[in-house]
Amino acid sequence: MKSLEKILFPKNEKSFNLRQLFEKTEEIIRSKIKRIGEYAEKASEYVINIENEVKHGVESLEKDIKGYLETAKYVIPSVLASSTTLGRLGYIGSTLLICGTSKGGIGGNWYSKIPPIVSSLLSIVSLIIGLYDFHQYHELSQELQDIKNNNNVSLIAIREQLQNINATLAELKNNLNDMNTNYNTTITNIQRQLEEINATIIGLENNYQTSQEQIQNLINQVQTLEQQLQALENYYTLEGILFGNNNNSYGISVIQINSVQIENETAYVQGTVSSSGANVILEIPVDYVEKVNVNIQEFVNDVQRNGWNPYLIIDRVDLQYMTLLNNQNGTYVISIQPNEPVKIGIAATPADPSAIYNVLNNKNNYYIVIQDSYPVYNSPLALWGYKSGNSVVVDFSNNYQYNLAENMISIADQIINSPGNQNPTSKGIIYTYSIFNGSVSTYQNYPEYIVGQTYIPLIVLEPEEGESII
Questions:
Q1: Averaged over 395-412, what is the pLDDT?
Q2: Among 460, 419, 464, 433, which residue's Cα sits nearest to residue 293?
Q3: Which of 31, 108, 178, 275 is the most exposed place for a label (fewest CB within 10 A)?
């Protein structure tokens, strides 16, 4: 049978294996998360670099401004104090102008620390002062002080901007850390979900395997039940009812008769099938179970009154002339068709059904003779009989067998209602059979059958229609 994988995901171009899909999904997710992590790491490094560069630049600018202020603080007043007003201002102006227009001045001198914009400014101031009186010196000092104050204000603003940048960088770091934490949590959740999915798949595979085993067990049970049902169907067919389900080779069915009723030329025989144990009612045309003025009902009554067991014997080949009608509370009604060459035996014996099976199915191994009531002279345990139309002597081995034969002949005489008849079988209505194992010798030129240990007496009613089974 197909596996669950083949049932859910048949191998074609449009189908995917569930496990491969999960593995591919996990691989893609891990790759994306790894790239996001790398981008986050690079972004963090880039922010740190920006922060360091800004900080370094601000510190350098602050240092330069401080240097400029210090230079202006000490150099300008000393120059002003060592010369005349115009000389000092000219010196300062020319010096600053030269420094401002040069590309760097003399290395190591304080001139190199004055930025071009400051030297230019001072040069212009010196020219103005040269036009005005020395009394304007105080105004120049005030302007220099204002420049210093403005530089301090700019430095404070730069520091505030730096603080804002640091705060922004800190917030960005926190956001990156939160994103990294969230991504790690997401990865953990996805891994847990993948593990749960894998566990579910394994559980489904185990359930599928268990289901397969259960299905196979159910199939086996169904097959067993089908075999049992077939056996029951075979058993409760007409052949199964009459001949059992043991596939024996016996050609007869022995039914022990319990009661008989005759109505409208039909004999209703109720009995039990020996091979199957089934209870049956046989609907038989009277012609099959009577001869002249003797019918099966009279036969059964006389036999049971004398303590013998009546039996109905049916040939397997005659199933074609029989019909299973219905089931009446566990009793199967079987109809036998009229005017057909049906072989039916109506017999009586003190023996059990198994003895009848053995005798009638292996009768070639037995001697069978028909007895009459005439005793053989000078032989107290022998009676006359018939074999193939010729007279024979039946020599019993003991008194029990001899008396049993005489009792059988007496019952036959009662059935045909001919008391004292010396030869009840001569009318062809009732036959008394001795079936035995033994030996054959000669008695006064007559074949003499010496009866052995196996012995079954049978009283048989000859049918009007059809044939006798014996």
A1: 92
A2: 464
A3: 108
Residue 221 is predicted with a pLDDT of: 86
Q: At what angle do helices 137-235 and 116-131 cross, to 10 degrees?
A: 160
Backbone angles phi, psi at 311, to 5 degrees: -135, 150
Q: Are residues 260 and 176 in the same domain?
A: no
Output phi, psi for 105, to 5 deg.
75, -170
The answer to the question of residue 219 being in a domain is no
Report CA torsion sign: 289, 294, 297, 301: negative
189 and 43 within one domain: yes
Distance from C-alpha of 5 to C-alpha of 175, rounded to nearest angstrom = 45
Full-model pTM: 0.52
At 298-337, the pLDDT tens digits run 999 999 999 999 999 999 999 999 999 888 888 999 999 9
Residue 65, both tokens? 């401004």
Residue with tokens 């079936």: 435
| 305 lies in the same domain as 248 | yes
The answer to whether residue 221 sits within a structural domain is: no
434 pairs with which residues across the strands? 369, 457
- The residues, ordered by sequence, that sit 6+ positions from 174 with a Cβ below 8 Å of its Cβ are none
Average pLDDT value over all residues in the chain? 77
Separation CA 57–CA 55 (nearest Å):
5
The domain boundary residue, chosen from 147, 172, 199? 199
Q: Which domain holds residue 103?
A: 18-199
In a domain, 217, yes or no: no
